[in-house]
Amino acid sequence: MAAAQFDRVADFLNLNDELRERCKWPKRLISVTMPVKLDSGEVKVFFGHRVQHHLTRGPVKGGLRYHPAVDLGEVAALAMWMNWKCALMDLPYGGGKGGITCDPRSMSIGELERLTRRFTMEILPFIGPEIDVMAPDMGTNEQTMAWITDTYSTHAGYLVPSIVTGKPLGLQGSAGRAQATGHGVAFLASSALHKNNLPVEGASAVIQGFGNVGSHTAYTLASYGVKIRGISDVQGAIWHDRGLDVHALREHVAKTGTVVGFANAEPIDPDQLLCQPCDVLAPCALDRVITGDNAGKLQCKILAEGANGPTTPEADAVLDQRGDIHVIPDILCNAGGVTVSYFEWVQNFQHFQWTEREVLSKLETMLQRSFEKVTSFAARQGVSQRVAAQSIAIKTVADAKAQRGMFP
């Protein structure tokens, strides 16, 4: 899917064959095995991957995910998207992504720590503040980043906070990092409503996913006066015509672990949730949920892609033909996380902490600038928002490669 998107844009940009090949393929694909002693005494071998898409514009940046379905192809696709995301936001990074094939929900804290430290040691020659900077992703969190920081720093002999982002504040993490991605999704959704002459206050939204991204998207949209009519998670979906109380829902989820059973809502089929009437639809969980089958049934005005790759190429074709939905493509819409990760990395080098207000203000400025750049390009060239965003990003990388030339 990622390669198909790239080829479509490379054709649009008329990239020559040399630059097309150099931009498309990852710089490094690293796979490692990690024997880990489980609490039972059994030794299990896990498989881990790290893909570094390009180092042309700086160190690679990207998350580390723990999930049973992780494989090298998925990680490579996500690294490619991260490359375009960083270029679109004009961050001095290439794209990276990592993953370990495991089920973190079935593992103890001790097992996860041993797995994380072993993975860090296995890829130690290929990471560093100026080479590869990891961050939390699906199934990982700030504690995971703390273990990586400690392992790398122990090897170096001194604290190296800039080895990862998304760290705890006590280890020189950044204020605003936890809510950055969701805040950015909500901020850009409001920008798209304004752009399409639609009111923000009183608008309605449906959010797929109530994890870190989905929950913060919901909180921020609610603070703008948007009614959150429907929310789903892995266990089900809920609906309320007049809007859900997201703060009460957060307390419910903290107690039960799911949105299902929330007293002030009705259950709804998760697939049907995506096709309910709303102003903003924000898929913030899984990839490939907007497909050729359901794209024609969507009743939203703004599609804000909080997840990576939630819309398939087949769905894109349908949406392009419809022309009545403003798509905020994933490489722009969920770029808040990597942008605030960049702020954290900069703060680590400066040995200086910014306030949450400073962080979120800088984030909104950068997101708005990129949003205007993408919408202007789309209008000027007569292309979709996704093609516009990816064209800007891929041309940025291609120009950098052309300027640097090719080492013999």
UniProtKB/TrEMBL annotation:
Matching SUPFAM superfamilies: Aminoacid dehydrogenase-like, N-terminal domain, NAD(P)-binding Rossmann-fold domains
Keywords on record: NAD, Nucleotide-binding, Oxidoreductase
InterPro entries, per database record: Aminoacid_DH-like_N_sf, Glu/Leu/Phe/Val/Trp_DH, Glu/Leu/Phe/Val/Trp_DH_C, Glu/Leu/Phe/Val/Trp_DH_dimer, Glu/Leu/Phe/Val_DH_AS, Glu_DH, NAD(P)-bd_dom_sf, NAD_bind_Glu_DH
Source taxon at top rank: Bacteria
Cross-referenced CDD domains: NAD_bind_1_Glu_DH
A biological process term (GO) from this entry: L-glutamate catabolic process
Chain positions recorded as substrate binding sites: K61, K85, S341
Active site annotation, chain numbering: K97 (proton donor)
Gene3D superfamilies: Leucine Dehydrogenase, chain A, domain 1, NAD(P)-binding Rossmann-like Domain
GO molecular function per UniProt: glutamate dehydrogenase (NAD+) activity; nucleotide binding
Residues that, per the record, bind NAD(+): T181, N212
Glutamate/phenylalanine/leucine/valine/L-tryptophan dehydrogenase C-terminal domain mapped to chain residues: 174-405
Sites annotated Important for catalysis: D137
Recorded family membership: Belongs to the Glu/Leu/Phe/Val dehydrogenases family.
Listed name of the protein: Glutamate dehydrogenase
